Amino acid sequence: MVSLWKTTSLWIMNPTDAHQWQQLAPLALVFLVIDGLQKFIRENLFWFLGAGAGFAFLDWLGPRELLLALAAILLSFLAWAIIFHRRFRFRLEEDAIRVRRGLFQKRELKVRFARVQNIQLGRPFYFRPFGLVRFSLETPGASEKEVELPGIPAELAEIMRDRVTGWQGGEPEEDQSNEETVGSHGIELYRAGTGRLFLHGLSSNQIWVLAGLVGWAIGNFYDHLESYFREVAIMQWLSEFGGPAWMVISAMIMTGLIILMLLSGVFSIVRFHDFRMFDRGDRLVGIGGLLDQREQTVKRDKVTGLTLQQSALGRLLGCWYLIVRQTQSGDQELSDSQTRFLVPGLRRDDHRLTAQITSEWVRPASLNPISLHFRRIFWLRWLVFFVLVLVALAILLGREHWSLQMTAAGLVLWMIGIQLRWRHWGWQADGDRIWVRQGFLGQQLDVFDLALVQQVRVTRSPYQRRHDLANLQLMLPQGAVTIPFVPMDDAAELANRALYAAETAVTHRV
Amino acid sequence: MTGITEPSEFSNGPVPSDRLPDYRRVGLNPVARPFYAYSLAVTGAFWLIVLVAVAWMPRLPFIPFDPAPWSVFAMSGATIWFCVVAWIDARRRGWVVREHDLIYRYGVIWQKTVIVPFARIQHVETASGPIERLFGLLRVKCYTAGGMMADLSVEGLDVRSARRVRQYLLEQIREEADETDRSERESAENGQPVENDKPLDHESD
Question: B101, B169 in Cβ contact below 8 A?
Answer without folding.
Answer: no
